[in-house]
Design a protein that fits this description.
The protein has 21 helices and no strands. By secondary structure, the protein is mainly alpha-helical. It has 3 domains: 17-202, Growth Hormone, Chain: A (Up-down Bundle), CATH 1.20.1250; 208-259; 268-490, Growth Hormone, Chain: A. Helix 4 (53-81) packs antiparallel against helix 5 and helix 4 packs parallel to helix 6 (107-135). The longest helix is centred in the first third of the chain and has 32 residues, at 139-170. The radius of gyration is 22 Å and the shape is globular. The N and C termini lie far apart (47 Å).
């Protein structure tokens, strides 16, 4: 008699599985909130450590770039090396990196720590999702588990902003990093005793050359955009952008030839999926890039303390949660294409209104209405996006497709933040409005919001061009009846 391909203990019900869900959901919360928790703390960190504006940008970019660039490899490591083992190593490394960042004495150390957080988050996130999949293999329990996991992911960004405000105002900005140590201790204990090991079977080989080229390519591209602050025509800017583009072309060539590619090209060459990935990248640029400048405007220009500033960013997240059920019903009625076209345009309108901010303006008049409108538009995008990104994907490609979607968000955010920072810096440097320094800052923030609005219009055009087909084609096998909001992993 042949042995079963999967250990019976993994798929058999266990009383520990719900406690395992708590541990895995906690992991997802840590990974997501760390994308935003430092946003509110950055003004204080910049002042204490003497960070330049570029260094300030890289505190955010280093995490998103390392996370996004290594997610695909992290998923492969988890599948091949062992998901529990990868989870525990990722958790431990994330905790050490967080502690290092919490005691950083200069900008370089803080940026390195954030990069290391991203590296270990790229191991942690796919391992946690894979463990959730094998712990709850099917049925109603699986749907419940994924609903809990997705809700935590969706709330994580908002939790990060509020928790960052609380810690920065009542303790110190360093606790925005040190607090992770407590989560990590719980995650390690729970992971050791509650989670069972599993791994993909067969002859599995790592695509190390593909991983190296895509990581260096994306890093060069993002660094080149960050250098644009000193001028788009500078030799260093052009050189790193060209190097990044060349390495990404080489990555595509490698993926076409290698037996077990890091990213099977069939995942991204499908027009619908490719369009969804491009839209996700632009959404990432807005959520990670331009929204950072909302936090700066609230604290630096409007003079809010960290906690009120964190709370002041919540209208967008709350509106996403309120509108998600409405968008889900619309998805069942009219399909994903109209939502993917109209949603970005609504978000663009909110960003355009946000660009009208003034140094002496009111939060309730100039900022909050814009965040509400952006939230409405984002809800219309998030609800169909996950389904579209996985449309027609073979089961053995589902993990890579999901990782690609999350990578698109993080890499889009990294590139977007670099571009917005360059626009902000050039606008402030060239400001001649005759006002105060705060007026100059506000003009820089407004330039970033205008660029973000243009990006969302481009996302609408991409959706109109690439996401074609009937509702039944785009949401096969009853997906419209089960659609649920795919909130982003920041």
């Amino acid at each position: 008699m042949s042995m079963p391909s999967r250990p019976v203990s993994i798929s058999s019900p266990s009383p520990k599985r719900w406690w395992a869900l708590v541990v895995l959901a906690l992991t997802q919360l840590v990974v997501v909130l760390d994308g935003t928790i430092v946003n509110i703390a950055l003004p204080q960190a910049q002042q204490e450590l003497g960070l330049s504006d570029v260094e300030r940008q890289w505190v955010v970019t280093a995490y998103a770039l390392a996370f996004g660039a290594l997610l695909l490899l992290g998923g492969r490591v988890a599948d091949y090396w062992g998901r529990k083992r990868t989870f525990l190593v990722g958790m431990l490394g994330f905790g050490v990196a967080s502690a290092f960042g919490g005691v950083a004495q200069n900008g370089t150390e803080l940026i390195i720590a954030r990069g290391l957080q991203g590296v270990f988050a790229a191991l942690l996130a796919p391992a946690a999702l894979a463990l959730l999949t094998v712990t709850f293999p099917s049925g109603r329990e699986r749907n419940t588990a994924f609903a809990v996991f997705g809700t935590v992911a969706g709330a994580g960004a908002a939790v990060g902003l509020v928790l960052g405000g609380v810690l920065t105002e009542f303790a110190d900005w360093r606790w925005c990093l040190l607090v992770n140590v407590f989560f990590v201790i719980v995650g390690l204990i729970g992971g050791i005793f509650l989670v069972k090991e599993s791994k993909a079977e067969g002859n599995n080989r790592y695509d190390l050359l593909g991983a190296l080229t895509v990581t260096l390519g994306l890093g060069s591209l993002v660094y080149g955009f960050s250098l644009a602050e000193h001028g788009w025509a500078q030799i260093e800017t052009i050189g790193f952008l060209a190097l990044g583009a060349g390495l990404l072309v080489l990555f595509v060539v490698i993926e076409r030839r290698v037996a077990q590619p890091l990213l099977p090209l069939r995942i991204v060459t499908n027009p619908v999926r490719g369009g969804a990935f491009l839209v996700q990248a632009i959404v990432g640029s807005v959520l990670i890039g331009s929204m950072l400048y909302v936090a700066f405007h609230l604290q630096i220009v409007l003079g809010m303390d960290p906690l009120p500033a964190g709370l002041a960013t919540l209208p967008m997240t709350l509106m996403i949660m309120v509108m998600a059920p409405v968008a889900t019903k619309l998805l069942s009625a009219i399909g994903p294409r109209p939502l993917m076209i109209v949603g970005p345009l609504i978000a663009a309108a909110g960003l355009a209104y946000l660009s009208l901010i003034t140094a002496d303006g009111s939060y309730f008049v100039q900022v909050m209405p814009a965040l509400i409108v952006v939230g409405i538009g984002m809800a219309m995008i998030f609800v169909p996006l996950q389904n579209l990104a996985l449309t027609g994907v073979a089961p053995h490609d589902a993990g890579a497709a999901s990782a690609t979607l999350n990578s698109a968000l993080q890499i889009g955010g990294s590139i977007g933040l670099s571009v917005f920072t360059a626009l902000y810096a050039s606008t402030v440097a060239g400001y001649d409005g005759g006002g105060s320094e705060l007026d100059a800052f506000t003009s820089g923030y407004a330039a970033a919001f205008v660029a973000a609005a243009i990006g969302m219009v481009l996302a609408s055009i991409i959706a109109a061009v690439f996401i074609r087909g009937s509702k039944s084609d785009l949401l096969p096998q009853g997906a419209d009846a089960e659609a649920s909001p795919a909130l982003p992993v920041h």
